[in-house]
User: What shape does this take?
Amino acid sequence: MKGERTVIRDRDSGEIGRPAVRSGEAQRLWSALDDLGRGRGRTIEVVGEPGMGKTHLLSCLADEAARRSFIVASTRCTEFERNLPCQVFVQLLGAIPGFCGLSEDSRTEATRFRVYDAVRTMLRDRAGQGLVLILDDFHWADTTSQETLENLLRIPVDAPLLLVVSQRTRQASTRLRSALAHAIDFGNAERIELAPLTVAQSAELLGRPVSSSTLRTLHAASGGNPSRLELAFAERWHESQVPPAMDQPLPEQFAAVLAGEIDALAPHFLVVARAAAVIGSRFTLDAIAEVSGIHRGEVCPAVTELIRRDLLRPISRTAAFAFRSPELQRQVHTTFDPCSRAAMHRRALAMLARQGAPAVEQAVHIEQSLSELTEQDLHTLILAVREELQTAPHQAARWLRVALRVPVSQLRDENERQDLLGLLTLVLGTGGRLSDNSDLVLGLRRLAPAEPGVARSRVIAFCSLLQGYLGHRAAAQTLLNQELESFPGPGMPAAAVPLLVQREVTKIFNEQTPELEQVELILHAAREHGDRINEAGALALRALGQALTCGPEDARISAEECAFVVDGLTDEVLCEHPEFLAMLGWAEGFLGFHTEAAGHFKRGASLLPRCGRAFLRPIFLNGIAFCYVQSNRVSEARAMAAKAKQAALEEGGADLPILALALESWLLMLTEIRGEHRALHTAEQAVKTVNAGNRPLSVLTTISLAIAARVQGDYPRATALLLTVGGGPDLLEIPPVMRPALYEMLTATASGNSSPSSAEWAWLATSAVQDVTLPMPRAFALMARAHVLHETPAVAAELYQEASCLFSSTGANWAQAWAMTHAASCIAADGRTPEAITVLDYAEELALRAGASRLFENARRLRRELSAFDEEVEKKESTGVLSMLTVREREVAGIVGTGKKTREIAQELSVSPRTVDAHLTRIYRKLNISSRAALARLMAQAS
Assistant: This one.
């Protein structure tokens, strides 16, 4: 039989795959096959919008029917065969007796009935044990085939026949739809309507999680239409939220499906369709007539034919029309020659301008025009930018790209040039993902005033800031250096000051420190010219540079001077350079002035939306998170760090996600009891990001990775990381204010046979704070000293408690709780268990107040251990030298006798190394011995 289907099996499994996304509809077809196997046939109509998956569903049905050994005959109708009588059934069944050679016009009533009987007889004879007849796209079937199917619906074939018909209801024959409806009412047929996919079905089709925001965006854009959904996913425009332009061709696999519908149009109808595609999402007959150049009386029947073909659809309760889908409109728009298309766009523009349409609607046609832009075009585009700037900044950027086609030399109106410059600055500062608009930076430079001066310097400085933010550091420096060469001779003119300040700011993006001698010269020049905003910038650079390279005392004085100047400036003045507040905030944060730093970060963040610097938001959010974690607001810090990470990803900055990941890693270790694995993974992800960009090791990123390694007990790795990023034991690559904290880590992670030893690291920590009065560095130095004094636990406890007081003065309750837990361990080792428990109670309260769950759990675990030891006061053995030891102490002593080290004992007993050291101190005191060797000998004698 013609059209007979062979079974197609999955290559891997050998089984035929079901259309899982349409599982409900497929199950109904599978049930019809079950009935067919029992000798009962039926007719099924499958309907749905174009692209809903009718053909795919029928293909799966054919495969399943063939697998069950049914005879399968299928065909797809096309409009090119509509003039061939009964062509559908001729293709499936072969020549129909008494009908071959008859034209459509020569049919008679008797002929038609002979055809019906012949087809019914042929179907009955060939049904055998089961026949599946599939008629796809039956809305294109010829009239005789449609009438034959109507007859089969009225008088069903008395045989095991499953007849499946798919069609678009908008294009289907009215008579056939009526016949099907009657057959359904009488139970001789059923309808399967393919509805839009649900979100869950869309997730299954694309292989994305249901919770994905990307998936939901795609589902909403496609209306649940599978074909449109797959197209949107293929183009992936959702990532930048910028849909493809109307002149961007569809991907080939999707264009080929729509091309058949368009190519079949007669030339007259095609011109009308193209004019409609040029006009836009909705159009009237008059608009089509004007844009196409065809008389309205001829347009109306053409639109009627396009509606009949379901290419166009009327818009309810209006005199307007629209394409069936945006994708179809785009396909029509991209498939005729650019010159004819541009001419139609010019006619559409003239029509809209005459009607006073919004500038945004006119801008579309200016964009598609191939001719040079006129002054009126430029004016319209500027209006369109203003209309879109607040609600759709990516569209505003689009219109600016069109406006920048105008050569600067043709911008005779200085006000118009200033308008473009101001709008371009705002779009770059507030237009969403900056990396998507990086091409506009060149336009910004083109629009800068030609003559050297303060106005031009401000534009060039902003361009350099954008380039540095995007990671184009060399280009940013080169741009500034070239501009500075235009100021020959001695002295530093006012126009050079913004450029020199920005050059030092760019060094920060390059992970370099500002050149302090140069900063002093800039500061002097800014004061000489009365440039208050760049004076503030120079002071912020000096404070940050000193915090990173000099003694903390000098940095503290500079930070206070900068804060005095900045706090005296109005928001309007600071709006020119809000990044200066970020530099001051980070300087204050490094110095431990977290309250002041948070205030400056928050002020700067509040200014960003109105001063065109929204892309800097991650820098401020990271700064706020850093201050929060240091000032008793760990939970808020974690939420702020998450915002910073999301903002960094959205803005597309080169390095900001790395800082966000480092903060996230640190916070995971503080806030999650068992978060060390996630923290280590997050820190490693940040390091991989650095390495992927071929950038030098980031100090904060590497430190976060070292902290994670320390918490996991991987001391060699932690030490190696710190020495690598620090440039050796002297840590010369680390800002002086941060060195004591790193020396504390090196002291804690040094092994007994390492070089330098723990004692040497502790000495370096103490040396680093000799002339420092800042509480945070001094606290870390005290912690380092205490780590090496466990042979004298009382002295170590005093140092830990002193460090705790210094941490408290900065508001860092998490650090205070950390120091108090160490102090409690030493107090217990000194034999003062009740006092140690009291200290641990206070440490728990501090950790809980700070939201540091991990530190809270550590303090609670140690308190439980000490409480248990104190309550038992262990049973004494009746005889022997070990009778004075508790059960736990005897257990520790026994393991020591086997030769194991402290860390191995701690792992075996599931306690901390410091707890083991505390037990050993008490054992030595009770047994009046002073070494492990003596204890081992004693245990050997006792055994």
Notes: The beta strands are 42-47, 71-76, 131-136, 161-167, 189-193, 312-314, 321-323. The two ends are 95 Å apart (CA to CA).
